[in-house]
Amino acid sequence: MGFFLALRYKEFKIMFENKVVWITGASSGIGIEMARQLANKGAKVVLSSRNEDKLREIQLNLTNPEFHMVIPLDLEQNSAFDQLAQRVYDQYGQIDFLFNNGGLSQRSNVRETPLEVDRRIMEINYFGNVALTKAVLPFMESQKSGHIVVISSIAGKFGFFLRSAYSASKHALHGFYESLRLEEEQFGINVTIACPGKINTAISLNALNSSGEKHGEMDHNQETGMSAEDCVAILLKAVEKNKKEILIGNKEIKAVTLKRFFPKLFWKVIRKQSAT
Q: 28: domain range?
């Protein structure tokens, strides 16, 4: 490793060293990989999802497991988030990063999907996400620093087959967090919105179908997508550089540029893409 590359790596590691990083959706996919890479960089990781047993197993396999904390939570049940945020603050005396990663995808046509499914996806992906941010915000304001990282999706940049409610929930996050960024920069709080494309995780297996049940199938798009390891490495570099938004993926992320500059061509291309 060259001198300047080694120095750059050291600076990157120092950024997260001894920082308190709260990760939702930490029991699978991108969330597990976030926890692993951040723990390796010396962060104190707060692991959250519904699956407490899985979180504790993950904790034990992280670097310095005694530094980390498990806080089970359900994004669909957000009434206790203020108390959970207080628990994290009482444990560490600071909350430096919030990685809003937890969420739920969809695989169903609009005409076949009852409104209850739309509401559930919005409750988890938008309201649960926002509720936790609002619970953490007072602590970040009081310490005059903090960084909120939002895992949106390429579906937050344009709609796609079988993703109507999912895409809507991700679009909503952009509006909320772009507003929040402007309001909170006076307190030294930064916001990064990440838009992953096709990433090799189990997101399609757990996606809701028109009956509100798990889709239960691994999409080809996910199976052949970028690894979670590479995705998180790119994300953390973007956070380090305090980027406002980052697209992560392979050639599929070029569709965002295509839509912006060549919209007619975009719609011609996108309708030919496989939904799964």
A: 3-251
